[in-house]
Structure prediction request, 666 residues.
Amino acid sequence: MTLAMVPFMLAFLILVIGLYAIVAKRNLIKVIVGLLMMDYAANLFLVLVGYRTPAEGAPVAPILTGGAAGAGDLAARAVDPLPQALILTSIVIGLSVTALVVALAIRLYEKYGTFDTELMRNLKG
Amino acid sequence: MDHVVPLLVAIPLAGGFLMPVLGRLTKSHRALAVLPIAMACGLTLIAVALLTRPDETVVYWMGGWKFPIGISLVADGLSKLVVLVIAVISLLTLLFSLEYMTHYTRPGLYYGLFLLMVAGMMGVVISGDLFNIFVFLEIASIASYALVAYGTESDELEASLKYLVLSAIASTFILIGIAFVYNVTGHLNWAKIAEVIQAGGGLTMPLYVAAAFFLTGFGLKAAMVPFHAWLPDAHPSAPAPISAMLSGVLIKACGVYVLCRLTFSVLGSHQTFGTVLVVLGTLSMVLGALMAIGQADLKRLLAYSSISQVGYVVAAVGAALVGLALANGSKPIEVASHLAVFGGLFHLMNHAVFKSLLFLCSGSIEQATGTRLMANLSGLGKRMPVTGWALRVGALAISGVPPFGGFWSKLIIILALTQLAALAHWAFYIPAALAVVTAVVTLVYYAKVQRSVLGGEPSDAAEDAREVPATMCLASIVLAVLCLANALVVLPSVRSRLVDPAVRVLSAGVGSTVESATASADREVRTPAAAQVGANEGMTP
Prediction:
């Protein structure tokens, strides 16, 4: 495992922690936090995929500032902008899922008076 | 013709935003249902129009931007078939909703979410881009979470929560799979991914990892057996028309369709994926049927039976995948594999029709009697003749009794599996034998449903039951007729128009995908390099 792999491994660690929270925790709020962590781990992973180290100089944001003259330099050094565009979409999707799950949690709290998922087991799998 | 394709998404999407607004203006359920039904009619017409030239692949570049900037919508044989299924089932379930949903409040929101779900499914099916599929998948999923919770009783909320959490995990896995694929190939367009993988000499380790993420993610969305826990809660908790949509088309459009497309056309027919799909499919088939036997709740029984029937489809396409990988130019094995694909897709169509019929009948019964526990129901055949006969037709079709469509599709799947066993590998005898056993088990539990719900003297709950309103009956009758009409697909003239183009798309494997990309590339005005510079210029202020 090279040093370049470390950020990817850390992103996966966040993913696994999130998955653990969803599977093992009884408190609904902790489950929601687990969901958020998984979502962010996936976003982080996508951004890392788009990161690259140029042959010379430091990587820059994919924003053209110097007019047409700066285009060559930008092409040589900029990180891949596509994954960044993708995670913007993914964040918005994550937001709507979170809003919905929080709304469900509030409604469930009104019904049961608790966030403990063990106590709301009307349905059996 | 290509300009019709984006309408498949645009029409329901526009409806999804219009309906909540209209819902503020009027409280009348019937007035609000007019627009969605008209839209579903329009979608069905477009689907039929697309099928007039079934073998033509229509590629539409969004906003006129060509590859690599543009995002493509692709309607080929397979997409057109699934689009038709989605459009027809949505039309009939909306017709059923017209009267059924009068018991619920806020019809504007209901129809809005319904149309959003349809837009998402249509988008998944016609999208030619991996990330776009993810976005549309989420649109359909989020709308379906909300629709499952529509009753807002504790059961519905709990089922929706369970569905949401598992489905969100699936979405995360799919997104990570997309990241892996993008990292390896540098593309998100399906055709380009397939081309790069082919040129690079096949699958590498990261692609196997991506495939594992995709299989888990879409397996969860398709509710295959180790990942099925959410389905028996979520599908029965939703209002009946939504159960019909979820079981009838959503798990297929968002799960099975994408898995087929991904394995056959992008990653290539590969023995490993095929074996995984056969094993998962067979497990779902058998365990789904066994768990269905013990259910007391009619809708729960139907939900378990969905797991079992989707297992048939997945096992058939998986077997075809293995067959194509093992064929090595052997003509008989290829023919048997094509037969397996045909059986799988045919069963997908059939299941969409009879499972939505059965769920709609369960909705009618629940509305008429106020219960769906089979122990409290009997003698409904006398009180509700139309629903009773529709339920009978659906139950016979799903148990594979001739001459209904379900019989032929199961027969073809079993025949194809036996042929593959004889020609390619003996192990195919196992799914073939289990498919026969499952068909018998299915017959047994649907016989139980018919006897306890329809037969005998009316019980207390059934005593005052009356036949449901005409539009609900109409939807059931049309679906019951379709159960019978689906048998016509075995006729060569119907088959060659409807299902064969889809079979050709899948069995041609990676080749056809790459061809469709080059065909569309001919129409490119600018070269990719020139287009890239053009885009950069456009971005500078």
